[in-house]
Structures are given as C-alpha cells and as structure tokens.
Amino acid sequence: VVQRGMIVAIEPLQPGELAENEGRTVILPGLVDPHVHLNEPGRTDWEGMRSGTLAAAAGGFTALCDMPLNSSPVTISREALEAKRAAASEPGKLAVDLGFHGGMVPGNFDQLPDLIASGVIAIKAFLCHSGIDEFPSVSEADLRRAMPLLAEQHIVLMAHAEISRSLPPMTDPRRYADYLATRPPSFEREAIDMLISLCRETGCAVHIVHLADGGSIERLRKARIEGLPITVETCPHYLTFAAEDIADGSTAWKCAPPIRGRSNREMLWDGLRDGIIDLIASDHSPCPPEMKRLSTGRFDLAWGGISSLQIALPIVWTEASRRGFTLDDCARWMSHQPTRIFGIGSGIRVGSPANFMSFDPEAITRVGDTRWLHRHAITPYHGFNLRGRVEATWIRGQPAALGRGRVIGRGEAG
C-alpha cells in the first residue's frame, strides 16, 4: 500500500485482486548498483546520466552510485563534485536516484574532508593505473595516511585491488590468453593482502570492487573471521563468462581485472554462496565503439569495460538459477547488501520509499531484440537468451521515468 510515495502497509492480496497475466510476476525491491560509470560531465560520448539512468530503470534499478572516473573533471575535489551534481540536477536528467563517490589520488588528501562533508557515498582509489592519466593510482603510503580519516568519518574505501608488476609484453595482442597473462591473479592477491593489513591497522572499512580472482576468497574469508570490516563485490561478467570461451580478437570481453577460467568462475559462485562475496555490481563502463578496437581485435589498445546495466538482473538470474540459487539471493546481492554497505537503498518495508520493480522470472530476454538504452550497443551478451525480464520499475510509487530520479547523498534512502 503506497501513499505519497511511501510504503504505508504490506497486506495479503484479496481474492480477485491478481490480474490474470500477473500470476508469475514477482515484486522485488528496487535494485541498487554502487558501481557504475556514467562519465558526465566531460565524456558523455561514452555514456551520460540521462541514457545511463534510463537503462538502469529498464533494468529494475532505483538507485546508482557513479564512480569518480571517467567524467572530466574526475571527482577528486569539491568543485568537481559540484559540477557533477549540477549536471545531474538539470530538469529531466535522471530516471532513478543517483549518488556520487569521491576519488582518492596522490596529492588530494586535503580535498578528502570537503568531499566527505559534501556527502559522497564512498571514496574510491586505484592501486594500479586506472586507464586515464588524470586519475593516477595511490601508494601504500597514500592509503596509510588517508584511511584513518575515512575510519574516523565512517566512510568506506572502495579499492580497485590490483598491484601491477612489470611483465613481458604480449606476444600477440589479439590473443585473449596473452592479455590474460598481463594481469595474473597475483596482482589481485597482492593488493588484497595489503588492503587487509591496512584495514587491520587503521580500522577503515574496505570494499573490494569487481573481484575476479576466486583464489583470493580464502584470504578474504580469514579476514572476515578475524572481524575486519571488509566487504566484496563481483560482477555479472565474471559470473557468466570463462576465459576458455573467449575467442582471440574478441575485445568486447576486455575488462580489468580480466575474465578468468571456468574453475575460477565457480569459485566466485561459491564465494557468493558462503557470503564472503557480499554483492553483485555491474561495473557498467561503456565507451565509444572505436575505443573497443573491434576491427583490429587488439587487447593491448582496447578500452577495458563492459556494459550490462540494463540486463544485469536477467544475466545474474540466468546463471544463479542454474546453480540452485533463488530470487531471494538475487535481491540480497543486488539490493539489500548494497543498501546495507552504502546506505542509499530502501527495500520493501513499511516507512520506506516505494522503490520496487516487477520481474517475470520465466520470460526470455533476448539481448539485441529489445531497445538498448545505453549510449552504445556494444556488449559481449549480444544474442544471448537470458532467463527473466524486468516488467516495470517504480520510484517513490511512480513509474520510473526521466525527471523522477533525485541526486542523493550518503545515508539518504531516496
């Protein structure tokens, strides 16, 4: 029961209230994605708030968190944050709620208090090259200086957990196996070991973004048993694809960390089953088609990023249901846990904003047959038949549409 955009009661259906064609539709809480790249202002030829939030609404999301890159300027100062908020506040810009992460780079320590005071959801740092020069990686010394401040302010550090080491160049830049060898699991494991140590030392909550290495789960399990405040996400592409199936030259599959082998994929599913991996985020990171180097198939030159925001739930449900998981699990990974960790969702409960979606778990979504709302149609899922279809999304009791979304800060439920 919804009044003035809020859930005021939850009651059983009465006889005759269920329409004939609604017999298999499930109502789920609005999905929350804490890891998307909308790239506005500055790189709206890659994506944009309008197109990105429309795609999110079509995918059942009611709240997103935008990363501090690859917008221009990157969100490493209060001024840059205000520019991003101004872009988001233009009339008719947002179809769903949108919050912003701040960035940590060498030399911006003095900017962090202002970013935190301005309501950023979390602070993001790279431990390796980010892909754009204006967002350089931080050192262990940078983290050791900043993490006590984040701990004091109860701000989560989101970390791209790879520490790169010098390796021989690719013999053949079109071979996926050669690209995979340039970012081995040891890069993730070394970074995670350092983050666990710093978490223990400083008490700062750490969130490992886009975990790709199943071999890191055991060290994360031990950290959780120790009681350290460490949370973990993985992404739909790591749970769906396997390195053995990626053809040479198929740069649509390039991402960082890279998609690893089949056995590694199943270790990630086990991590979700055991609760060591807390949530699934899209890491939606589009770019103009030419930047994917589809014509040459060169992994060394292609942009690393995968678009999946509009179809994330059917992707996850397709693979999860094959392994005996339920829609309750999907709701936990894609709504409840992001809400718990980052504080921007609501869930279906009395007193919360009426943010929810309807999902047909048996319908088939064929990628390419539906209208693609992202800026660019490039995705490795093209042609896939996915299980499940999002039927509708409501935000504050109204169908999600441009102009219905709001700019939100840390701790706001929408």
Describe this protein's structure.
The chain is of the alpha/beta class and 414 residues long. The protein has helices at residues 49-58, 78-88, 112-117, 140-152, 176-181, 185-202, 217-225, 236-240, 262-274, 312-322, 327-342, and strands at residues 2-3, 6-7, 26-29, 31-36, 61-66, 97-100, 102-103, 123-126, 157-160, 206-208, 230-234, 279-280, 356-366, 385-395, 398-399. It is 29% helix and 16% strand. The strands form four sheets. The protein has a six-stranded parallel sheet with strand order 7-8-9-10-11-12. Strands 3-13-14-15 form a four-stranded antiparallel sheet. It is globular and about 65 Å long.
Mean residue pLDDT: 95
Helical residues, percent? 25-40%
First and last CA, distance: 18 Å
The largest sheet is: 6 strands, parallel
Report strand %: 15-25%
Could you spell the SSE succession in H and E letters? EEEEHEHEEHEHEHHEHEHHEHHEEE
* Largest beta sheet: strand ordering: 7-8-9-10-11-12
Specify the structural class.
alpha/beta
In one word, what is the shape? globular
Cα Rg? 20 Å
Unreliably modeled segments: none
Our count of helices gives: 11
How many extended strands? Answer: 15
